[in-house]
């Protein structure tokens, strides 16, 4: 029998020590701010309805014929805790996404997610920046609205441009020209521009915050009261690497229900399996969900930036290729 | 030819783009936490040699290209075609000037070259990394000079021109790296 030499860890001991130190730093950060650590189930009856997120599913002997889902984020369970206890919480743990593998993607990864009761989106953005500056050093910060980012990089207004105008604009960029010519979905075109043109242009050694995403990409964020074309959703990048995604959380149960249903319509159109909406989350929102802001941050990517590694495998004890 | 999903993309995969067989050089997945995933690829067009960047929606599929590499020994040039032979089956293949391109200057009889075939037809010829060729013309150099100075141009039997050290003379055989076109050493006859 030939023994595989593929048993060795993908991270060095020095990096594992840095990983442990970063775990401690994150826990200290929240402990000083009186945010409670929680560990919600990774295995749940409910998956996620989001068109672009893939749940891993499994079965349990105890509940035959019922699918169970490995969580892509602890969001739903954490929000049920927030609804029940009206208190700020954080979770530092594994999540699973049935995604491709790449330099920034491992199907099992560590997510830092937190919810701040009574916080506005702006206050939460400040807290994310404080955590990044604590762990990565005092990087300069640029904050732009989604609209400003598009206007700066492409001279294109993502809120008013027609699909034809977006396509015409992207056709000037050779590496996306063909895809944008055959793609007619507005959000896909905007995401293409964001992921492939705008994000790579962000200043390498600085923090970039993008806020006020189009309402069609609101996910679980509230719409802006003064401009319903946009949602109180933000993303935080260091250089071109997406690190965190957060919201002024949607508190309205019926709107949340409608978004789940709309997600499932999109899933049908794309021949993807529908996902049952998490009625426990809906019930929790109905019971009285406090105004709060929440954010999810990729812990392994934070460690990549801190330890200056360019492949996520280098910061994981065992990447999926040797898991 | 089969179609490939972007999930199967990796360096070395041969796909059709713009009517031309292409080799994927690099594949990178770009997946926002919320939203559509994309594959950014760098590909080399195997006929024009151009390297271009393209983006695909993850999950899209593209037509594969029937491209294979074969190791064949170079036989001769009849003025129009360069003839190669499979040393095991003795089957012969002819490549035209377009496929051989400027690699013609590195073709040595009996040397085993890699022929890239698209739908069975040669589209590119890659000579061995090192070939040995005789110098047919170079200026007489000074005795006692050592390698490391600027050197001098030398014309080889195939017409290739390489820079050689001053002490290397017409009639000598030299070893050349075909990837860089640089002189490596003299060869004892």
TrEMBL record, chain A:
<dbReference type="GO" id="GO:0005829">
    <property type="term" value="C:cytosol"/>
</dbReference>
<dbReference type="InterPro" id="IPR004364">
    <property type="entry name" value="Aa-tRNA-synt_II"/>
</dbReference>
<dbReference type="GO" id="GO:0005524">
    <property type="term" value="F:ATP binding"/>
</dbReference>
<keyword id="KW-0067">ATP-binding</keyword>
<dbReference type="InterPro" id="IPR006195">
    <property type="entry name" value="aa-tRNA-synth_II"/>
</dbReference>
<dbReference type="InterPro" id="IPR004525">
    <property type="entry name" value="EpmA"/>
</dbReference>
<dbReference type="GO" id="GO:0004824">
    <property type="term" value="F:lysine-tRNA ligase activity"/>
</dbReference>
<dbReference type="InterPro" id="IPR018149">
    <property type="entry name" value="Lys-tRNA-synth_II_C"/>
</dbReference>
<protein>
    <submittedName>
        <fullName>EF-P lysine aminoacylase GenX</fullName>
    </submittedName>
</protein>
<keyword id="KW-0436">Ligase</keyword>
<dbReference type="GO" id="GO:0000049">
    <property type="term" value="F:tRNA binding"/>
</dbReference>
<dbReference type="Pfam" id="PF00152">
    <property type="entry name" value="tRNA-synt_2"/>
</dbReference>
<keyword id="KW-0547">Nucleotide-binding</keyword>
<feature type="domain" description="Aminoacyl-transfer RNA synthetases class-II family profile">
    <location>
        <begin position="16"/>
        <end position="317"/>
    </location>
</feature>
<dbReference type="InterPro" id="IPR045864">
    <property type="entry name" value="aa-tRNA-synth_II/BPL/LPL"/>
</dbReference>
<comment type="subunit">
    <text>Homodimer.</text>
</comment>
<dbReference type="GO" id="GO:0006430">
    <property type="term" value="P:lysyl-tRNA aminoacylation"/>
</dbReference>
Automatic annotation (TrEMBL), chain B:
<dbReference type="InterPro" id="IPR008991">
    <property type="entry name" value="Translation_prot_SH3-like_sf"/>
</dbReference>
<keyword id="KW-0251">Elongation factor</keyword>
<dbReference type="Pfam" id="PF08207">
    <property type="entry name" value="EFP_N"/>
</dbReference>
<dbReference type="InterPro" id="IPR015365">
    <property type="entry name" value="Elong-fact-P_C"/>
</dbReference>
<feature type="modified residue" description="N6-(3,6-diaminohexanoyl)-5-hydroxylysine">
    <location>
        <position position="34"/>
    </location>
</feature>
<dbReference type="InterPro" id="IPR013185">
    <property type="entry name" value="Transl_elong_KOW-like"/>
</dbReference>
<dbReference type="Pfam" id="PF09285">
    <property type="entry name" value="Elong-fact-P_C"/>
</dbReference>
<keyword id="KW-0963">Cytoplasm</keyword>
<dbReference type="InterPro" id="IPR012340">
    <property type="entry name" value="NA-bd_OB-fold"/>
</dbReference>
<keyword id="KW-0648">Protein biosynthesis</keyword>
<dbReference type="Pfam" id="PF01132">
    <property type="entry name" value="EFP"/>
</dbReference>
<dbReference type="GO" id="GO:0005829">
    <property type="term" value="C:cytosol"/>
</dbReference>
<dbReference type="GO" id="GO:0003746">
    <property type="term" value="F:translation elongation factor activity"/>
</dbReference>
<dbReference type="GO" id="GO:0043043">
    <property type="term" value="P:peptide biosynthetic process"/>
</dbReference>
<comment type="similarity">
    <text>Belongs to the elongation factor P family.</text>
</comment>
<protein>
    <recommendedName>
        <fullName>Elongation factor P</fullName>
    </recommendedName>
</protein>
<dbReference type="InterPro" id="IPR011768">
    <property type="entry name" value="Transl_elongation_fac_P"/>
</dbReference>
<comment type="function">
    <text>Involved in peptide bond synthesis. Alleviates ribosome stalling that occurs when 3 or more consecutive Pro residues or the sequence PPG is present in a protein, possibly by augmenting the peptidyl transferase activity of the ribosome. Modification of Lys-34 is required for alleviation.</text>
</comment>
<comment type="pathway">
    <text>Protein biosynthesis; polypeptide chain elongation.</text>
</comment>
<dbReference type="InterPro" id="IPR001059">
    <property type="entry name" value="Transl_elong_P/YeiP_cen"/>
</dbReference>
<feature type="domain" description="Elongation factor P C-terminal">
    <location>
        <begin position="131"/>
        <end position="186"/>
    </location>
</feature>
<feature type="domain" description="Translation elongation factor P/YeiP central">
    <location>
        <begin position="69"/>
        <end position="123"/>
    </location>
</feature>
């Amino acid at each position: 029998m030939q023994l595989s030499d593929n048993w060795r860890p993908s991270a060095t001991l020095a990096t594992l020590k840095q990983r442990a130190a970063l775990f401690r730093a994150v826990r200290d950060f929240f402990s000083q701010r009186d945010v409670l650590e929680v560990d919600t189930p990774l295995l749940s009856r409910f998956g996620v309805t989001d068109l672009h997120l893939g749940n891993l599913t499994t079965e349990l002997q105890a509940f035959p014929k019922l699918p169970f889902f490995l969580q892509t984020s602890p969001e739903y369970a954490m929000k049920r805790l927030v609804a029940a206890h009206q208190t700020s919480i954080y979770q530092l743990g594994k999540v699973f996404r049935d995604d491709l593998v790449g330099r920034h993607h491992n199907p099992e990864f560590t997510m830092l997610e937190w919810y701040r009761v009574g916080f506005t989106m702006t206050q939460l953005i400040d807290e994310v920046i404080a955590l990044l500056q604590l762990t990565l050093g005092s990087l300069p910060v640029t904050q732009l609205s989604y609209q400003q980012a598009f206007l700066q990089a492409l001279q294109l207004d993502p809120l008013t441009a027609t699909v034809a105008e977006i396509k015409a604009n992207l056709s000037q960029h050779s590496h996306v020209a063909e895809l944008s010519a055959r793609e007619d979905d507005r959000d896909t075109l905007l995401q293409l521009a964001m992921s492939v043109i705008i994000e790579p242009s962000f200043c390498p050694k600085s923090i970039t915050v993008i806020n006020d995403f189009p309402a069609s990409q609101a996910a679980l964020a509230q719409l802006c009261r003064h401009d319903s074309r946009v949602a109180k959703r933000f993303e935080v990048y260091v250089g071109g690497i997406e690190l965190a995604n957060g919201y002024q959380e949607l508190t309205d149960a019926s709107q949340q229900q409608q978004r789940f249903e709309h997600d499932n319509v999109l899933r049908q159109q794309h021949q993807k399996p529908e996902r049952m909406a998490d009625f426990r989350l809906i019930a929790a929102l109905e019971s009285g969900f406090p105004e709060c802001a929440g954010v999810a941050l990729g812990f392994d990517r934070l460690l990549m930036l801190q330890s200056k590694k360019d492949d996520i495998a280098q910061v994981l004890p065992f990447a999926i290729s040797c898991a | 030819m089969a179609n490939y999903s972007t999930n199967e993309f990796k360096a070395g995969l041969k796909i059709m783009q713009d009517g031309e067989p292409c080799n994927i050089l690099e594949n990178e997945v770009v997946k926002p936490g919320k939203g559509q995933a994309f594959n950014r690829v760098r590909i080399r067009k195997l006929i024009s040699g151009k390297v271009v960047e393209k983006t695909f929606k993850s999950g899209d599929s593209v037509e594969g290209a029937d491209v294979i590499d074969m190791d064949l020994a170079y036989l001769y040039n009849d003025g129009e075609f360069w003839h190669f032979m499979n040393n095991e089956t003795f089957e012969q293949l002819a490549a035209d000037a377009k496929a051989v391109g400027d690699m013609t200057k590195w073709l040595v009889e009996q040397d085993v070259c890699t022929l890239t075939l698209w739908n069975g037809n040669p589209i590119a010829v890659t000579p061995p990394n090192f070939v040995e060729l005789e110098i047919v013309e170079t200026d007489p150099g000074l005795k006692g000079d050592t390698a490391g100075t600027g050197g001098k141009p030398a014309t080889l039997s195939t017409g290739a021109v390489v820079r050689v050290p001053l002490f290397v003379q017409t009639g000598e055989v030299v070893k050349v790296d075909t990837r860089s076109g640089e002189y490596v050493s003299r060869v004892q006859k």
